[in-house]
Amino acid sequence: GEFDSTGLYWTPLASATIKALTFGTNGFYLDNTTNAQTDASGNGNNFTNNNSVALSTHTPTNTEFLWAPINIGSVASTVPVTSNGNRTILCTGPDNDSEPRMGGNLAFPSSGKWIAGVTVADTGTGKNFGVWTDRSQAIGFGNYGGFACWYVTSAQYMYNSSGTYNPVGAVTTATDDTLWIAVDIDNQKLFFGLYDLSATTITWYAADGGTDGNPSTGANPSEASLDMAGATFGFAGRSSKTYTLVEEADIPFTMPTGFKFLNTTNI
């Protein structure tokens, strides 16, 4: 690294700059391209991987979207707990807790098309994954409004930002399926998606209850005319319910045209 122009902050060098350096006989450069221990300096000074050192796409030069404990709407009797590098979120509060909403470390920029997904993990009632559109509404599930989301009650439902559910009604999910939300900031459209692992298919749901949503073309969104600039993907839960964010490398279907995972590189 090197100090920035102010002389105050130590910042990572770009990879192209690093590769142009001379590392000397005993120098090494771990660029994480192939694995976490291979020396990329050309000297062959490889490390031995003890325990579980692994590659990560969340780095000082590429901050990914993660759950952020400081981005919480209200402090209830219990606050959601994050783990797994802030990819997993767990709400341990009892039934009828105040259901605090928690957002992420990155807000949506004023343009672009962004996508995020979570594992179902369990099908019990009491959790949401969605887009926290109204920051003044700090608590509650999708039926409170201001939170266009997947909502698990007696089954899996989709709620739009006004607090009413999508007419497709209940959707059946299994624990290994993944829930997806694609947001088109430019055209103010939101798409709910369900990836069925057993069928290896992704279904995008339309506002009229159909299954012909198409984020790539912008046709048949789950909700339209929705200003999401500055909003964030969010979570609300109770009764020990959990969601884990899907990593970009693990997306199980072809990325819709024009969409990207939310990270500082793509922003």
Explain this structure:
With 267 residues, this protein is mainly beta. It has one helix and 17 strands. Strands 3-6-15-8-9-10 form a six-stranded antiparallel beta sheet, with no helix packed on it. Strands 7, 11, 12, 13, 14 and 17 form a six-stranded mixed beta sheet that branches. It has a three-stranded antiparallel beta sheet with strand order 4-5-16, with no helix packed on it. A hairpin with a 4-residue loop joins β11 and β12. The protein starts with a strand and ends in a 6-residue tail after the last strand. The model has no long low-confidence stretch (mean pLDDT 90).
Number of strands: 17
Mean pLDDT: 90
Class from secondary-structure proportions: mainly beta
Main-sheet strand order equals 3-6-15-8-9-10
Query: What is the helix/strand order?
Result: EEHEEEEEEEEEEEEEEE
N- to C-terminal separation? 22 Å
Share in β-strands: 25-35%
Global shape: elongated
Count of helices?
Answer: 1
Report the C-alpha radius of gyration, rounded. Answer: 21 Å
Largest sheet composition:
6 strands, antiparallel
Q: Roughly what percent helix?
A: under 10%
Sequence stretches where pLDDT stays below 50 over 5 or more residues: none
Architecture blueprint of SSEs:
Blueprint: E1 2-3, E2 10-11, H1 15-19, E3 67-72, E4 81-83, E5 88-91, E6 101-104, E7 113-119, E8 127-132, E9 147-152, E10 156-159, E11 178-184, E12 189-196, E13 201-205, E14 223-224, E15 232-237, E16 241-244, E17 260-261
Parallel strand pairs: 7-17
Antiparallel strand pairs: 1-2, 3-6, 4-5, 5-16, 6-15, 7-11, 8-9, 8-15, 9-10, 11-12, 12-13, 12-14
